[in-house]
């Protein structure tokens, strides 16, 4: 009977493998100890410009005009973005979203305001 390895605690990939005493995820390069308690992993709380906690699926509004690198267009202040997805910060961009007319894009939480329901 083959032993099953746990999914990656960082990206939930099922393709983990053993490397000595460590478990390794080939998808995100995360390494952890097999006997490590994953529940103690630090949880990052992402907040908008006003300090309101953001969650996956929230709707936000852009609070200032944003120039898009490599484009002559810009995202205008007041643009509403629906269904955001929070991600590990990459160059400060901790929100992944789709903006009509621009497509998939990364935003910084410091330039958005959560829309109240």
UniProtKB/TrEMBL annotation:
InterPro entries per the UniProt record, alphabetical: YjdM, YjdM_C, YjdM_N
Q: What is the lineage of its organism?
A: Bacteria, Bacillati, Bacillota, Bacilli, Bacillales
| Protein name per its UniProtKB record | Putative alkylphosphonate utilization operon protein PhnA
Family to which this protein belongs:
Belongs to the YjdM family.
Q: Name one Pfam family in it.
A: YjdM
Name the domain of life: Bacteria
Protein YjdM N-terminal domain residues are 4-33
Q: What PANTHER family does the annotation carry?
A: PROTEIN YJDM (PTHR30305:SF3), PROTEIN YJDM-RELATED (PTHR30305)
Chain ranges of the Protein YjdM C-terminal domain: 46-115
